[in-house]
Amino acid sequence: MLFINSNVAPSVTVNIKTMDNSVNEEMIFCMSYGEKVNLYNAFMEENLEKWLQEKKVREIVEIAKDVYTVDKNATITFGFDSDLVQEQEKQRENISIFKEENMAEKKTKKYVAADDSTQTATRQQPRKEAKPVGNPGPLRFGAVVLWILALALEVCALMVFLGKLDLKFIAQIPQLIGFLVLDLIAVIVGAQLWKKANHIDPISEKNQLKFWLWNNMGLIAMAICFFPFIILVLTNKNADKKTKTIATVAAVICLLIGGVASYDWNPVSEEMKAAAMDVLEGETVYWTTFGKVYHTHDDCSHLNQSETLTYGTVEQAIAANRVRLCKTCAKRDNVSGVALED
Fold it and tell me: What confidence category does residue 97 fall into, taking pLDDT thresholds of 50, 70 and 90?
């Protein structure tokens, strides 16, 4: 076993020796004040990962390897400036007092399993493992069915405009607007299902045109379900001006609203998903109800104001339209090769 002891000394020294004193080396390392503070705090927190991040510690460990192979009971003793120790201990005491005073005001995060929005847990409670994200096939099938329905509603709206369809108990203009609104709803819901399926089973982005068309089938369906209606209304010379104007304005408004709602503003590619799952395989990630990215740390500073966190795998985060990793978490983990937030 390798023992590490901390002694107060007038300088930053490192002494490595075996139990039988066959090896006894003392080294003095030149460090900046910041390096000494980081080294001391990492040591006092007994944070091995943070400890080994310090460059000087890695140098010491390399030097100690040969000694350690000779005697597994070798001792490494670190000495720190007495003034530095006193100052850091005072700061640590002040921080401890500050944390205690603010503990009552600190919000308790709640965790929601990605597969069950009703399952919550406090930070101290066990977390429920999330279930698989599901099958994209039914989602795409549902989207196509809704788009076919939307096309039928467009035909109904056109027939009302031409006077070939008349619901006797409703006036013509309300009928017309009603069919257009139903048309809009069917296309938007279909587009959301399509986008959800694409986040579960994305397409490759090697062919950029195919990638764009595939991810924006909802936008294409929106154009098909409104453009023909607008053109036929505008080119009709027999309709009265008022009905023609109302029909055109209503259809254009629906087209604009539907276009914005159906466009995939956050597409994910097969390569993007594969890279994230490869780098963060087995990791639990977190995201908020209205957030746009996922996080690898539940104590990320960007989550401080969030009372509820959803947790799951990277695959589930991407399926939930959180396709990019938080920059702060990426820097903290030294992660590369994963799509980061803009």
Answer: very low
Cα(53)–Cα(33) distance, integer angstroms = 17
pTM value is 0.61
Contacts by residues 181-186 (CB-CB < 8 Å, ≥ 24 positions apart): 181/254, 182/153, 183/150, 183/153, 183/154, 183/157, 183/225, 183/226, 183/254, 184/150, 184/254, 184/257, 184/258, 186/146, 186/147, 186/149, 186/150, 186/153, 186/225
Inter-axis angle of helices 33-44 and 82-102, to 10 degrees?
Answer: 60
* Whole-angstrom distance, CA of residue 248 vs CA of residue 229: 8
User: Vertex 164, ends 162 and 168: CA angle to 5°?
Assistant: 110
- Neighbouring CB atoms inside 10 A of 310's CB total 26
Which tokens in the block code for residue 121?
């847990």
CA distance 104 to 122: 15
Check the CA dihedral 301-306-307-313 and report its sign.
negative
The residue ranges of every structural domain in the chain are 3-101, 136-262
Please compute Rg for the chain using Cα positions.
32
CA distance 123 to 110: 7
Question: Two tokens at 330?
Answer: 């990426």
Each residue of 152-178: b (16+ CB within 10 Å) or e? Answer: ebbbbbbebbeeebeeeeeebeebbbb
8-state DSSP, 8: E
* Region of residue 134 (left: phi > 0; alpha: psi -120 to 50; beta: else): left
What length is written for the chain? 342
The whole-chain average pLDDT of the chain stands at 76
Residue 151, token pair as written in the block: 């096309």
b/e map 11-50, b = 16+ CB within 10 Å? ebebbbbbeeeeeeeeeebebeeeebbbbbbbbeeeeeee
pLDDT digits (tens, 9 = 90+) for 245-284: 999 999 999 999 999 999 999 898 999 888 888 888 878 8
Identify the weakest region by mean pLDDT among 23-37, 69-83, 133-147, 152-166.
69-83
